[in-house]
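Job type: complex structure
Entries:
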Amino acid sequence: MNTEPAYRLIEHTADMGIEARAASPEAVLVAMACGLKELMFGDSPVRERLQTQVSCSGADAVEQLVAWLNEVVYWCDQDNRVPARFAVTLHEDRQLKGTIWGEPFDPRRHAMERQVKSVTYHQACLTCGGDGCFARVYVDL
Amino acid sequence: MTVKVQQVDACRWRIPRQGAMRSDGLVFASAAMMQDLRRDQALQQVCNVASLPGIVGPSMAMPDIHWGYGFPIGGVAAFAADDGVVSPGGVGYDINCGVRLLRSNLDSAAIKPVLAPLADALFRNVPSGVGSHRSDFRLSVKDMQRVLVKGAGWAVEQGFGGTQDLEYIESHGVLPDADPETVSERAMERGRAQLGTLGSGNHFLEIQRVEAIYDAHRAETLGLFPGQLTISIHTGSRGFGYQVCDDYLKLMLKAARTYDISLPDRQLCCAPLPSDEARQYLAAMACAANFAFANRQMITAAVRDTFEQVLQKGPADLRLGVIYDVCHNIAKWEEHVVEGRPRRLCVHRKGATRAFPPGHAEIPPAYRSIGQPVLIPGDMGRYSYVLTGTAGAYAETFGSTCHGAGRVLSRQAAKKAARGHDLIAELAERDVLVRAAGRATVAEEMPNAYKDVADVVDVVHQAGIGHMVARLKPMAVVKG
């Protein structure tokens, strides 16, 4: 079950960052992916014509966060695709299974805002407490 | 945490060892630059690099220093072969991002009437923009492996340029010890359709004119004359390099745990240089560096073809020769004298340029008496510089100097500042034609988003870690 995303793009001198808050680790991972989508493609409306399952893992929550977002970057970059929606489930041994819905990039309908080289580990965090989960990453542009 | 900084002279600032630092920091900057630097996290990043094991000499930053991720942009650090480390974060995602400068036999004033069709044709012929791919070819896996081992030499073998080009590329356009077996399938896939593409962000292709000459002898040695048309190419290893870096950061995070290396920032994850992890990373990094050398060579060939088509002139009339090609995101094995004895060091340059002095054996014989050419791009509205390396740089900075202007405005701040402006029209009024794949890129890359590169170059010249030779003014810019 994924909640409504709540993310914001944050300042960095050379690059940009994303922060998100959500009720659960899964929801914050989805929210961060939505932030990444906005950073790359603005608010372009995107249809759900493709669906891809991805999986990744990390030694802890931060590595898992960065690995997931880099899966999204690769999904977009490799075949020129634009994401519409995301879902995440977390499994044992820090395994993450994600679904990305979207469509091929169409310059008539989609804006190409920025190329993301990669999502970095610099000051990356994902913490969960009584008031939900918070995540942050900086991306290399 | 507030970083303690002591002014040494007009261009140098020392960060004395504090906290976990194993050596001092040394920042090259003017007083005005230092005021700005105190406001962001770049100085803390200089300290973080100084805490890595086996660092030799200070953790340094050139005057284009700004907040990066892991290393500051503009960072230089050398590590001992026996007890030092290599860090993919000290090289960056765009491995061997660099600059190539071509000279021509053309007078820039004579080209002005055909500048717009030239810019249009370059924009058409060199794929640029986010996710740019070549539609005309995709390398086979076997050819991709050859590119990774041979670098620019592979492109020349395929007819993209001549063997004389190779002499004027840092390391002759190929790093040794590249091993395609150390590269992931995903990296191979990302690279196969991206050779010969510019990409986006701060990457560009620029037609320029030689606007000022500061050292006539050196300029003449480099084949530069006033009013001459030159072309700069700024790009790197594209998605291939990003993936190599990403893959090896994961390995280095594990390695840092294995070897019990304390990290002030995960992006500084690293492995001891004698380890298998370090050997693998350096072999994969060399593959990405070679991809980037081949990329700039392919783009050079496209530039030459475009000039020939648009101007209806042959190669002998145009004489589009390579002046030099420099890396500015790289880790290299080099020998330097430290406290009177030669040492083999792994020098990391993250947004910094090698600047070897006159007489160095790695400089092409034609330039050996003047020092290695150093190419410093500025922003698209103002100017770029050609410098040469110095004995001062060799003695003080492991033969390194700045790499560009360095950002002062974040991308969001630049976009905000650009609101209500037609930047392309404003640049045209300043005699700079812009052809760009996206308006967002132009806004984020607006001239005011960068320091004035003249201030940066002034610091390196005054500090003696670079010698000013010429200034180049943009006439037409192709942006991704």
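Summary: Chain B touches chain A through 49 residues (CB under 8 Å). Residues 383 and 473 of chain B are 5 Å apart (CA to CA).
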